[in-house]
Structures are given as structure tokens and as C-alpha cells.
């Protein structure tokens, strides 16, 4: 579910975290752990590293709830950005360690992973920012494996409209796959201390 | 506005040769116009579909969400139409991007590790009381299971079983049941529960009242209500602090202190999550060992009271002996195996007596999780694989009393 929380929820969550409410931390984890872990796993390709990144990202948020600026976007996309940065940071460190240990440079593969990390974070951002009507339609077809006719029936749409939304939703998502260096491999060198939303 | 993005310059799919494996889409062959009608189709299946319709199907096609005939028609069209072929590749790639978080089940142990790491870095100013920890963890685990359910799963039949009966309900009803009974804690804390203050306290009546009122709601709504109430409970009890643990929570004809009620509700949550998982064929493990231990401790403390009740009702097999309150009395040594297990000494003759290894008249050994299933009314005492030694009547009484703790 890439459903973003309402802005009020985001602000309230930030206040509760700042106040040091453990229950808020638990809720934050339950809402976003699969996002963080999923993005981290995509980049790292293994469970341990994804778990470690999940720990670091939530640790950072819990220690620095004020680093989130609601004016810059929703909490979800901020967390996705943190995760992507942290994953890329970790990836670079692993790569550096490997080369120092005499390993071969595999820059092509490495850059591809970085690029994928950026794409995945962007895709999540796009999905969480697209109109809910389109997101819901995609979820019916993708998550619940319904065909477009069942999707239309479930959501009370015409079949034309269901087809239109599925196509439009995928078109929106496909813009996350920007090829080329502008994908942000250069801007992702920091660890979880930066700010901003993925563009 | 359909197509305004797709027809734009960002395509480029076919030029890239890295990334995820390409779908088997025929390579574009020269340019094609949007306008003119297609030549008479070779396949009869595609006969009624024009370019416009085929194009509108591309999203559904990429998601494998059209009929077999439409799929064949689209794929045949892609060999003739470069514009559509290009878009098809791009949309197929986009489908891969939907998989941002649903591909993996999160390890429930990760949650504990992440939260522990956070609290080590910055201690909570308003902590969740320790005795509410099992409830927090078990509700989170069940919620993760519910998140994976499809709309059809919510109606899946579940058998609720307890020692005096069974009832066939739906997954949504089970969540309604948890919501209704969790609401008893809301009442004790002075919070509004989903059912309001006038609702019956008896868990069964309360559940039926909840089902009556919530007919026709979607699984998502039922889940949302349960989850929100659970969050409110944890939040409220955190602000109330440790000292609130002694408040009474009334269940109608009995009551439990708040700290025990939270463990009881965590236990019920796990048991019913197991019922749901069985119904939709999902694997579901036991609670974390320390949480399981808290549940076993509570059950062991409730057992002498249940034993006394059964004796008063003439249901006990072994005769009671007089024992002075606060002194060691005849006991059954309960040895529960597996993580979270341990040794418990259940006083037989009075809830006021102290369980004692020296005064043990019998020993019974079984898996801790099996013991929980017995306490939940999911097993009959006779069906359990138990190792036993000593007074068989005393053992039978303890196991029967354990089963009698279960309720709907």
C-alpha cells in the first residue's frame, strides 16, 4: 500500500515523535517498515543489509524528528528519500571496501544498482503522489490480481475508465525510469543526514 | 488526457539494454499512424478491436489484466504498430516498479530489533508499559497479515473454537470480535470504544452486538477500526503510565487488572491471528519468547482460580485438602517446553496457597505452544501429547481447568 497519510497525520506523528512517545515510534514502524525494507532490499539484494538499513533509517528519524519539513512533501516520500540515500551510501562503502581489499572494480554494475535505487524511490514517490483514484485502480489489478473488468466492477467504473486509469497510472510510473546520469547518483553521496524529496 | 504522458518523449525503452529483463514484445517495425484503420486482421479474435481500443488496453495488458482474446489481439497488434509496441515495453517496465514493498514478508523479529535500537539511541520520554509490549507486538503482527489479504479473503470462513463450542464466522468477523473485546479496556481507561459505553460487558454478547452493528462493512474498514482502537489503547496507557496497571478491567462476570488484561488481549490476538492464518493458508508463528512467557505466567496465575471454581461446581476429580493461605500447598509441576517455556508450580487446593516444587504431587510436560492451544480451547486435554508422572487425577484437573479458561 503506497497510500500516503493525510498531511495532518504526518504533522501529528512528527510532534509525537518529538515528544518521545514510544507508541508513536511503533506506529511509524508499522506504517513504513515495509516501504523502507522493500526499498533497501531492492538496492542491497540481501536481507541482512536491508535490515541494517531499516534500523539506521528508523534510528535516524527517532533521533531527529525535526529534520522532517512537512512543507517539502509528505512524510512517506521523505522516508523513502532517507532510505534511498542510506542504501546508496552503504552500497558505496561496501564497494570501496571491496576495492581496497583488492577486488575488481565493477563500476557498471555498481552504477546500475545506484540508478535502480533512485528509480525505486522515485517510483514510490510518484505512486504516493498520484491521484488516489488511479492508485486504487492499479492496486486492484496489481495487488489483488483482478482483470480490468473485475476492477471496474469492484470500483464501480466503466470498463473504458478502468482501462484508461491502468494505462495512465503506468505511464505516470514509467516516468520514474529516467535514463542517464541525471538520475541523481551524484546527489546521493550523503548518509541519512540530508533532506529533501526525490525529484 | 489519456496518452498525453505516454506519447511524450520519455519513451526510450527499446534503446536501453540494461535493467530488468525485457518482456517478449516484438520489436517495433517502422512508424505507424494513430489514425488510419488497420488492415483486415488475420485473427478472428482481433476482428472487433480497432487501434484506439487496442491502445487503451495497453495498461491492462501490461498488468496481465485482460482476457485471453484481448491479450492475443494486443500482441498481434504490437507487431504492426511501432507506437504501441514502444509504449507496451515502457508500461511493462513500469509494472516492475509497482513492486516496491509487497514482495517480502517482514521478519517480525526485525521490528523488535529496530525499536530496541531506536530506544537505545534515544530513550522514550513516554514509554509503552512493559506489560503492554505483547499487545503491541501481536497486534502489529496480525496487522501485517491483514495487510496481505485480498478482498476475497475477508469473507473466508474461520472456525472460532473454545472449550464449550465452536462458531463459523468470517475473517472480518474475527477482527470485529477482537475489536469488541479490546473495547473493554477502552472502557476501563475512560476512552470511547468502538461500541460506546452502553454496550454489554460480557465478551460474547459484546461480540454479537458488534457483528450486528457492523454488517456490510468492507474488510478495510473493519481492520481500520480495530487498528485505530489498538493504537489509541497503547497511546492512552502510555500516558497513564505504569501505575495504571492495577486498574480493574471488567469482563462482565469477572475482571482482570489492566496489566493482565493487556496480556490476555495479546494472547487472544495471537490465537485468533492463527485462526485467520489457517483460514487463508498463511504460515503464522508463535509470539516472541518473552511475550509467550508473559502469557504463560498469566495463565498459570489464573489456573488455581479456575481449579477452585471447578471444584465448587463439582467438576474436580481430586479431593481438596485444607491449606493455610500463603503457605506452600500440594502442587502440579507444569513443565512447558520450547522457547518462552519453563517450570510452573500450580497450587491445587486453594488460589491462596503458594505453588511449590517440594509439595509437587505430579509432573506434566508438554510444548508451551500446545499448552496455549489448550488454554484457547483449540485442543482437548485428551488429545495432547503429554509426559506425565505422579497423581493422574491432579493432572487431569489441571489440564481440564486450563481448557476451561477459554471463551469465545
Automatic annotation (TrEMBL), chain A:
Annotated stretches, region: Disordered: 174-199
Question: Which InterPro entries does this entry report, sorted A to Z?
Answer: RNA_pol_sigma-70-like, RNA_pol_sigma70_r2, RNA_pol_sigma_r2
The protein's name: RNA polymerase subunit sigma-70
Annotated ranges, domain RNA polymerase sigma-70 region: 28-93
Q: Which residues form the signal peptide?
A: none
The protein's matches in Gene3D superfamilies, at most eight in alphabetical order, are given as: 1.10.1740.10
Keyword entries, A-Z: Sigma factor, Transcription, Transcription regulation
Q: What domain of life does the native source organism fall in?
A: Bacteria
- Any Pfam family from its record, for instance, is Sigma70_r2
- Where is composition skewed (Low complexity) in this entry? 178-199
TrEMBL record, chain B:
Q: Describe the location of the Putative zinc-finger domain by residue ranges.
A: 55-85
Which InterPro entries does this one have?
Anti_sigma_zinc_sf (IPR041916), DinB/YfiT-like (IPR034660), MDMPI_metal-binding (IPR024344), Znf_put (IPR027383)
Describe the location of the Mycothiol-dependent maleylpyruvate isomerase metal-binding domain by residue ranges. 136-277
Question: Looking at the record, which segments are called Disordered?
Answer: 1-44
According to the UniProt entry, its GO molecular function terms are: isomerase activity
Which keywords does UniProt give here?
Answer: Isomerase, Transcription, Transcription regulation
| Amino acid composition bias (Gly residues), ranges on this chain | 1-14
* Keyword Isomerase (UniProt): yes
Protein's recorded name: Maleylpyruvate isomerase N-terminal domain-containing protein
Amino acid at each position: 500500500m503506497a497510500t500516503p497519510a493525510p498531511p495532518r497525520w504526518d504533522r501529528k506523528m512528527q510532534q509525537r515523535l518529538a515528544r518521545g512517545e514510544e507508541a508513536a515510534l511503533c506506529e511509524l514502524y508499522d506504517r513504513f517498515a515495509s516501504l523502507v525494507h522493500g526499498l533497501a532490499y531492492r538496492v542491497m539484494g540481501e536481507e541482512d543489509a536491508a535490515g541494517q538499513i531499516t534500523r539506521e533509517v528508523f534510528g535516524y528519524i527517532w533521533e531527529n524528528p525535526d529534520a522532517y519539513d512537512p512543507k517539502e512533501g509528505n512524510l512517506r516520500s521523505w522516508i523513502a528519500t532517507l532510505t534511498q540515500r542510506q542504501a546508496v551510501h552503504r552500497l558505496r562503502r561496501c564497494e570501496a571496501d571491496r576495492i581496497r581489499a583488492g577486488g575488481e572494480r565493477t563500476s557498471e554494475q555498481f552504477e546500475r544498482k545506484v540508478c535502480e535505487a533512485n528509480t525505486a524511490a522515485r517510483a514510490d514517490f510518484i505512486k504516493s503522489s498520484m491521484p488516489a483514484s488511479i492508485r486504487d485502480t492499479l492496486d486492484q489489478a496489481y495487488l489483488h490480481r483482478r482483470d480490468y473488468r473485475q476492477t471496474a466492477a469492484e470500483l464501480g467504473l466503466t470498463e473504458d475508465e478502468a482501462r484508461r486509469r491502468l494505462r495512465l497510472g503506468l505511464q505516470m510510473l514509467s516516468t520514474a525510469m529516467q535514463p542517464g546520469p541525471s538520475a541523481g547518483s551524484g546527489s546521493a553521496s550523503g548518509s541519512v543526514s540530508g533532506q529533501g524529496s526525490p525529484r | 488526457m489519456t496518452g498525453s504522458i505516454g506519447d511524450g518523449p520519455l519513451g526510450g525503452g527499446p534503446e536501453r539494454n540494461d535493467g530488468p529483463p525485457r518482456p517478449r514484445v516484438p520489436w517495433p517495425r517502422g512508424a505507424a499512424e494513430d489514425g488510419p484503420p488497420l488492415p483486415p486482421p488475420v485473427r478472428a479474435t482481433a476482428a472487433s478491436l480497432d487501434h484506439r481500443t487496442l491502445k487503451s488496453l495497453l495498461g491492462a495488458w501490461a498488468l496481465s489484466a485482460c482476457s485471453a482474446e484481448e491479450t492475443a489481439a494486443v500482441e498481434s497488434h504490437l507487431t504492426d504498430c511501432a507506437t504501441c509496441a514502444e509504449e507496451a515495453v515502457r508500461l511493462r517496465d513500469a509494472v516492475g516498479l509497482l513492486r516496491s514493498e509487497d514482495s517480502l514478508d517482514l521478519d517480525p523479529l526485525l521490528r523488535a530489533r529496530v525499536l530496541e535500537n531506536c530506544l537505545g539511541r534515544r530513550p522514550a520520554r513516554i514509554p509503552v508499559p512493559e506489560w503492554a509490549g505483547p499487545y503491541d507486538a501481536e497486534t502489529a503482527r496480525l496487522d501485517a497479515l491483514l495487510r496481505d489479504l485480498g478482498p476475497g479473503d475477508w469473507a473466508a470462513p474461520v472456525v472460532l473454537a473454545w472449550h464449550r463450542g465452536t462458531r463459523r464466522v468470517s475473517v472480518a468477523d474475527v477482527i470485529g470480535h477482537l475489536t469488541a473485546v479490546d473495547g473493554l479496556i477502552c472502557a476501563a481507561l475512560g476512552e470511547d470504544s468502538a461500541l460506546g459505553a452502553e454496550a454489554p460487558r460480557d465478551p460474547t454478547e459484546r461480540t454479537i452486538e458488534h457483528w450486528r452493528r457492523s454488517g456490510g462493512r468492507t474488510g478495510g474498514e473493519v481492520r481500520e477500526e480495530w487498528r485505530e482502537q489498538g493504537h489509541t489503547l497503547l497511546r492512552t496507557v502510555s500516558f497513564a503510565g505504569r501505575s495504571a496497571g492495577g486498574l480493574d478491567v471488567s469482563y462482565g462476570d469477572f475482571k482482570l487488572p489492566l496489566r493482565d488484561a493487556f496480556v490476555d488481549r495479546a494472547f487472544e490476538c495471537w490465537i485468533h491471528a492463527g485462526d485467520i492464518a489457517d483460514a487463508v493458508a498463511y504460515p503464522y508463528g508463535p509470539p516472541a519468547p518473552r511475550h509467550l512467557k508473559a502469557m504463560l505466567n498469566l495463565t498459570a496465575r489464573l489456573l488455581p482460580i479456575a481449579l477452585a471454581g471447578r471444584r465448587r461446581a463439582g467438576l474436580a476429580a481430586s479431593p481438596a485438602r485444607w491449606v493455610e493461605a500463603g503457605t506452600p500447598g500440594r502442587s502440579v509441576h507444569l513443565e512447558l517446553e520450547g522457547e518462552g517455556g519453563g517450570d510452573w508450580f500450580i497450587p491445587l487446593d486453594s488460589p491462596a496457597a503458594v505453588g511449590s516444587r517440594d509439595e509437587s504431587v505430579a509432573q506434566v510436560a508438554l510444548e508451551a505452544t500446545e499448552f496455549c492451544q489448550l488454554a484457547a480451547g483449540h485442543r482437548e486435554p485428551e488429545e495432547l501429547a503429554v509426559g506425565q508422572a505422579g497423581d493422574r487425577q491432579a493432572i487431569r484437573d489441571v489440564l481440564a481447568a486450563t481448557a476451561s479458561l477459554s471463551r469465545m
